[in-house]
Amino acid sequence: MRRSAQVFADRPAVIFGTQSWTWSQFSARCHNLAGALAGAGLQKGETVSILADNIPAALEACYGIPMAGGIINAINTRLDAEAVAFIIEHAEARVFLVDRHYSQVVGEAIAKSSRDILVVDIEDAEAGSAPEFADCSYEDFLKTGAEATLPEFDLDELDPIALNYTSGTTGDPKGVLLHHRGAYLNSVGNSLAWEMPRFCVYLWSLPLFHCNGWCFPWTIALQGGVNVCVRGVDPQNLLSLIDEHSVTHLCGAPIVVRMLVDAADAANRTGSAPLSIMTAGAAPPSALLEKAQASGFEITHTYGLTEVYGPCSVCEWLPEWDELPADDQAVLKARQGVGYPMVEEVAVLDPETMQPVPQDGETIGEVMFRGNVVMSEYYKNPQATESALAGGYFHSGDLAVWHQGGYVEIKDRSKDIIISGGENISSIEVEGVLYKHPAVSAAAVVAAPHEKWGETPHAFIETAQGKDVTPSEIIEFCRDRLAHFKCPTRVTVQELPKTATGKIQKYELREKAKAVEPAE
């Protein structure tokens, strides 16, 4: 940012509605945030939480917090109050920057928390008045740092820059601690892997709380580009912003890509300037790729996890593949690909022997990562850290085959994680809620196909003797106790298949869930 603020001082850096800032202005606001945090007593290595949409303040946090020596803790805006309270407690947050649009859930979270925390209200007149729990407004807070002289940047490359919480196989999320070196390298890797040009225009359709926006806040500064901020992912609004600002790049979960492509197809959008779209997760089907190409969209398929700073593997496209039929191209694009140029190693290994599996496209192993873009640790969780980093590799838990040229293709997940609309859902967390229902004696939750969200939880339950319950009652029970995106969209009441030792055979349920008509 310092370089872009000097070299590209008067070029646009951030656009949000009718507001805009140049790189020198954006840099000054980030400096003011850093000064305000230092003035509020933030010490090196302490955490600053932020819960906000993709608004300018969320981008400023990506710079101002580490500039003050702090650790960014961007919280998922879809979480409920209990999860938010857990995170600010576990992260030991000193300051909490709160988008006024989320004042209700944050107010409930603060009431559940015992922390003495400075709460800063990121004001927005459209979202009502300032919440009572806020200590000051964001703009007033920035003013307190305007004249601050920050200490010398005394940071080691391996000092923490961010603490991101991700759903694991247990109910409570795990805190992924990331360092400056990894964030720097993956930011550069984004630019190289995607061949991003100088002065690109990037639309923030990807939530900034996802792995710090997949490191793209720092990538855009590298290129002196433009950040177009936006609340939500309404496809019509996104198309309007794309045309208005001549957007060149955007990222999104498969559901966002599908919504955007379908909206462009419905509007017969052709002949517009090319738009590069990066997606991660489920592979784009051939029909979607064809519609995207007709609309002038070029889709790049990537793969990664929070523990490796977001996407750090890309389906590196070879020119000779352009001549292949659409279905063959879709098969190739289904591969999660090879490591970014800045990644030391992405490999498919036998988890028992830690030896590479053959690159035959058939032998299944576990995807593992090694190098500078691997997390430091799971915060305050040495046992999980030791397990995840055993043998000198990060164990992703994803099962895959390996193709010639080192191309990885994921086949299944060994973790019971459901990825719905780009969000991780712990099946064990949902099962824990189901077991609280008095009519449920056994429960298992698996991923089921969903036309809109990619996949959603499908709950299979076995009722206690003499008790009955309907699927709709189970869904309502869950909605009263979980964030709505975590709740089952389908419920099947049946006797659950079990092994001789009583373990539920989830593989049978996964196959059954796939056969059920996808939910609307």
TrEMBL record:
Residue ranges annotated for the AMP-dependent synthetase/ligase domain, each copy included: 2-379
GO terms (BP aspect): fatty acid metabolic process
SUPFAM superfamilies: Acetyl-CoA synthetase-like
Catalysed reaction equations from the record: 3-(methylsulfanyl)propanoate + ATP + CoA = 3-(methylsulfanyl)propanoyl-CoA + AMP + diphosphate
Gene3D superfamilies: 3.30.300.30, N-terminal domain of ligase-like (3.40.50.12780)
Entry's Gene Ontology molecular function annotations: ligase activity
Pfam families, per database record: AMP-binding, AMP-binding_C
Domain of life: Bacteria
Domain AMP-binding enzyme C-terminal residues, every copy: 429-503
Keywords for the protein's UniProt record, in alphabetical order: Fatty acid metabolism, Ligase, Lipid metabolism
InterPro entries in alphabetical order: AMP-bd_C, AMP-bd_C_sf, AMP-binding_CS, AMP-dep_synth/lig_dom, ANL_N_sf
Presence of keyword Ribosomal protein: no
E.C. numbers: 6.2.1.44
Listed NCBIfam families: PRK08162.1
Family: Belongs to the ATP-dependent AMP-binding enzyme family.
Name under which the protein is recorded: 3-methylmercaptopropionyl-CoA ligase
